[in-house]
Amino acid sequence: NQTLIKPHVAVLPSVGLGHLIPLFEFAKRLVVHHGIRVSLLVITTNEPSAAKDQFLCSPNFPPDLHIVKLPPVDVDQVPRDDKLILTRLCVITEESLRFLKSVLVALGKPKALVTDLFSTRAFDVCNELSIPAYLFSTTSVAFSAFMLYLPKLDSEVECEFVELPEPIQVPGCTPVRIEDLVDQARNRKIDEYKWFFHHISRLPLASGIFLNSWEDLEPGSINSIEENPFFKQIPAPPVYPIGPLIKQEETLSTADFECLEWLDKQPPDSVIFMSFGSGGTLSVEQQTELAWGLELSQQRFIWVVRKPTDAAGAGTFFNSGSEVNDPKAYLPEGFLNRTQGVGLVVPSWAPQVSILGHPSTGGFLSHCGWNSSLESIAHGVPMIAWPLYAEQRMNAALLVEEIGVAVRLKVEVGQTIFGREEIERVVRMVMEGEEGKVIRSRVKELKESAANALGSNGSSYYMLSSVAQKWKTDLSL
Ligand code: UDP
């Protein structure tokens, strides 16, 4: 029986769809292309999540990919504060991983475990069980390099990083402007930083780091982690750029089908898709400006809307799916009527990958989460960068200034939000302007390069195959 001799690997995503989605794709690739049997260990809570359930009920799981749900964490016991997203995520994850050892033993000790940044507790468990533990970085290589560099920065700088007079120079990489610095490193005294720092300081313990990127997308940062003396002396674990691993297919609801049918009726490249990831939200004032800016731009659109709040990531990880979301209650008076036929407002969640892959979609206004960025590039869709929280401002800088597939909105002097005229200007620029043409042609090039990297002669395929081969060979020892 073939299955019996295939190496068995455990893949463990932290809480949140932004982790589950790419690690699931990683698991699928191991199974489908590299002859590995995978147990996907899923953290669960007592809170329902419609989007997650929809994701996990895909009928197309390959044989040899098994979902193993960890016992549910009672999230009512975990303090809730919309401004401390990472802290909550880490506490839930730690709580869930109390069961990891017994689960791994019951599964017969897998050959290796692959997890992401916020589950480094798994490194200790694997150490006890003598299982090599790898990290899958769900973000850019540039940000991964930043994380590997942060312990040094932390030991050398006394003030807050936000007080530094100059951009932060990660060895061999593009400097990070202070205003773009990841949220979790903006105040070193609070738990958000402590959790972040705790996990990133443990990165060197990994047996290897899988990077969700590829050689052509971030050549400079990859080269720097591999070759720069600083990273050699940490020493950083070997890195394997294996991306872009993005969601391949979606289980569609009736509303999703309707949305795609609407898209079928629109001209090629004519629709701008607007979404802020699995949890991004805007303030009332900002959401109103966005609605007006969009209307003024007169472009066709699909807009995934959430109830406005003051905490940018309020929907993150905990969108219960049961909350009523009625756009009429918070969009400007008459907006839905005036834009009928031109645009589609979708409450809470849309089939993003199907939309980005549709020929009528010509632009993506995005919060620059790394999965969304990769999905846009892999489908050749130029972006408007609208970063909200976490490392998204750093991603926006990378997409605009280094990769050249996005434009960024500007805040007017004296303002704290993007005004409607600016939104109108940038939407028109990407959909109809000259600058839009330039980034569109660049993103189309990268779409091809992404497909090549993943193909059986490509760099990403080769990298993953080399590790899978190692796991297989170890088995025969
Ligand atoms: N997503 C989706 N529909 C939505 C919003 C998000 O399918 O309406 C998916 C999106 O395709 C991506 C993920 O959710 O795969 C969001 O991940 P990302 O890293 O972009 O952002 P995060 O949610 O972690 O901030």
Describe the structure in brief.
This protein has 477 residues and is of the alpha/beta class. 43% of the residues lie in helices and 12% in strands.
SSE arrangement:
Layout: H1 2-5, E1 8-12, H2 17-34, E2 37-42, H3 50-56, E3 65-69, H4 85-96, H5 100-106, E4 112-115, H6 121-129, E5 133-137, H7 141-156, H8 191-201, E6 209-211, H9 219-227, H10 229-233, E7 239-241, H11 254-264, E8 271-275, H12 284-297, E9 300-305, H13 335-338, E10 343-347, H14 352-356, E11 361-366, H15 370-378, E12 383-385, H16 392-403, E13 406-408, H17 420-432, H18 434-454, H19 459-476
Parallel strand pairs: 1-2, 1-4, 2-3, 4-5, 5-6, 6-7, 8-9, 8-11, 9-10, 11-12, 12-13
Provide structural commentary.
Belongs to the UDP-glycosyltransferase family. GO terms for molecular function: UDP-glycosyltransferase activity. Its EC number is 2.4.1.-. The protein contains 19 helices and 13 strands. It has helices at residues 2-5, 17-34, 50-56, 85-96, 100-106, 121-129, 141-156, 191-201, 219-227, 229-233, 254-264, 284-297, 335-338, 352-356, 370-378, 392-403, 420-432, 434-454, 459-476; strands at residues 8-12, 37-42, 65-69, 112-115, 133-137, 209-211, 239-241, 271-275, 300-305, 343-347, 361-366, 383-385, 406-408. It starts with a helix and ends with a helix. Helix content is 43%, strand content 12%. The radius of gyration is 22 Å and the shape is globular. The strands form two sheets. A seven-stranded parallel beta sheet has the order 3-2-1-4-5-6-7, sandwiched between helices. Strand 9, helix 13 (335-338) and strand 10 (343-347) form a beta-alpha-beta unit. Helix 4 (85-96) packs across helix 8 (191-201), helix 12 (284-297) packs across helix 17 (420-432) and helix 17 packs across helix 18. By secondary structure, it is α/β, with parallel strands linked by helices. Uridine-5'-diphosphate (UDP) binds at residues 17-18, 21, 247, 275, 277-279, 304, 349-350, 352-353, 369-372, 375.
